[in-house]
Fold this sequence. Notes:
By secondary structure, the chain is α+β, with helices and mostly antiparallel strands. It has helices at 19-22, 24-38, 49-60, 65-72, 88-106, 141-148, 172-176, 185-189; strands spanning 132-135, 156-160, 166-170, 198-199. Strands 2-3-1-4 form a 4-stranded mixed beta sheet.
Amino acid sequence: MKNLRLDPAEVSSQPSTASSKNSRQRMELIVRCQKAIFSAYRTDQYADPEGFLHQLGAVLEEFPDEVITHVSDPRTGVQRRSEWPPTIAKIVAACEDHAAYLDRMRKPRAVPLPRLPSPRLQDMPAGYLAQIFVPENHSRYQALVRWSETADRLYWKYGKSSDGRQGIWVNIGIWDGSISMHSDTETIMATERTNPEQTVRE
């Protein structure tokens, strides 16, 4: 079979509209990429060598320089993974995959916000861990008042509800019984501290 000669002016079946792709340097790069893929296989492995080269040039012209260079380089390209000449469809898929990879690499990545440390016990205001409001007329109010006389001020406070009623705010663990009223500070601190404030109705 006669030797095939690649003409830079005939690497594509369609002229490019982008000026950079019309440049001589661009055409020469496409020719080099064609040769890199084509020469990796025996000529008799192609059903139609000239037709393959013509279609290959048209396909490579659709992608940026860095994509076609990667796909045709014997160290990273299609010939590294295929013992037989790849189909045009496989070359297109390889180009699209690498183009998508480059797009992902260029997108700014979200930077996780630093997690703010929890305030130290001595810096927490009174009632900092009190989420449940118990009004004065509630049946458990007096027992909670007695508990508050010896309890840490972090877990209770006197105050008003959103509707203006007087009462006491207590920690949710104390209210629902998941924490004993005689628990120490460390035990209560281990409970959920982000519960929304709630109001107990009598």
